């Protein structure tokens, strides 16, 4: 039986010379089940006790001595994030993908947990990548991507990890992974594996694993997406990349927002099953003395949502209107068997904007 298609999200980055004024411009549309609520949440930097644990969506992992301040957009039922940024100008977003190896249904770390963990622990894009792959090696990935008691929807994960100077595309299959460094131009990742023969870092056993599975002979040039993509997955150019490349040079954060709002291109999703439930756009100046500005919708459908700016400053004030109700240990997502009920997770901003546009 063919695996269910992953939600058709889109992550994009533009670096000089395509981005204007030496900036790095990042964007993500998060396509999720239509009725799912995303919240925008800020967590301050924190120090942690030795040998303490952090409880992620399904499992707990060892905490680190210090975590960075982060702002994230996340489905309100889980611990991790679809996308976000930290105080050091690192932005991460992930994509659910299918691969030749079916994703594990056993509860482990979700790709979205790894987004948040990378932001909390990495002060550069490469540091965040190293954090993600180390946790992947130790704990694996798996579990239900949706708040759904009726069926387990599990996927492999791909990530776009960006800072002031560069971007990394990280794609994973189980604990195995490959990554490409991007230092100029534009890049987009969608819900397919996209790495080919340009691989700048990889799991030490990646190629031997592919050979053991009979997916690569060892004689041809190693092409990651050809080796690990499902047989029925035909690599196509991401609609977002087409839109970015048409801009040539001079891409700004407004350009990125316009692309994220574009339904005709397929970047903005509004289908029977999926909706772009939240969006993010960020502008990262190359000078670390200038502030990064991160724009979040916190509401569905960017074509009719306002992108609200966020800047990391001292004494950030929380914005409760964009935060969903907290159900604590009584949350059906935390009790086993999970998801036996679906509580009302709508926050005030969601209620107001959805009512306004009906």
TrEMBL record:
It comes from the Eukaryota. One of its GO terms (molecular function) is dipeptidase activity. GO terms for biological process: proteolysis. Pfam families: Peptidase_C69. InterPro entries: Peptidase_C69. Belongs to the peptidase C69 family. Secernin subfamily. This is Secernin 1. The lineage of its organism: Eukaryota, Metazoa, Chordata, Craniata, Vertebrata.
């Amino acid at each position: 039986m063919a695996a269910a298609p992953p939600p058709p999200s889109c992550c994009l980055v533009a670096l000089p010379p395509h981005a204007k004024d030496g900036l790095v411009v990042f964007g993500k549309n998060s396509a999720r089940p239509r009725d799912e609520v995303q919240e925008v949440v800020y967590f301050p930097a924190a120090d942690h006790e030795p040998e303490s644990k952090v409880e992620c969506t399904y499992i707990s992992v060892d905490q680190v001595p210090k975590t960075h301040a982060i702002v994230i957009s996340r489905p309100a039922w889980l611990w991790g994030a679809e996308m976000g940024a930290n105080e050091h100008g690192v932005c991460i977003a992930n994509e659910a993908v299918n691969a030749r190896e079916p994703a594990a249904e056993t509860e482990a770390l979700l790709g979205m947990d790894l987004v948040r963990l990378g932001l909390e622990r990495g002060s550069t894009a490469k540091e965040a990548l190293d954090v993600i792959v180390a946790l992947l090696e130790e704990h694996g990935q798996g579990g239900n991507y949706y708040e759904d008691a009726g069926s387990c929807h599990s996927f492999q994960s791909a990530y776009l990890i960006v800072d002031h100077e560069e971007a990394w595309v990280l794609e994973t299959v189980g604990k195995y992974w490959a990554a490409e460094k991007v230092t100029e131009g534009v890049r987009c990742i969608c819900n397919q594996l996209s790495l080919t023969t340009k691989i700048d870092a990889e799991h030490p056993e990646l190629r031997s694993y592919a050979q053991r599975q009979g997916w690569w002979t060892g004689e041809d040039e190693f092409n990651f997406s050809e080796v690990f993509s499902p047989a029925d997955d035909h690599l196509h150019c991401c609609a977002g990349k087409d839109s970015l490349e048409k801009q040539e040079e001079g891409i700004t954060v407004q350009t990125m927002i316009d692309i994220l709002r574009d339904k005709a291109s397929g970047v903005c999703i509004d289908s029977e099953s999926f909706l772009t439930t939240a969006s993010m756009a960020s502008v990262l100046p190359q000078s670390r003395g200038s502030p990064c500005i991160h724009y979040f919708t916190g509401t569905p459908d960017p074509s009719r949502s306002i992108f609200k700016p966020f800047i990391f400053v001292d004494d950030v004030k929380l914005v409760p209107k964009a935060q969903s109700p907290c159900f604590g240990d009584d949350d059906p997502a935390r009790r086993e068997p999970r998801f036996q009920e679906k509580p009302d997770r709508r926050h005030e901003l969601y209620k107001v904007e959805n009512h306004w546009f009906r």
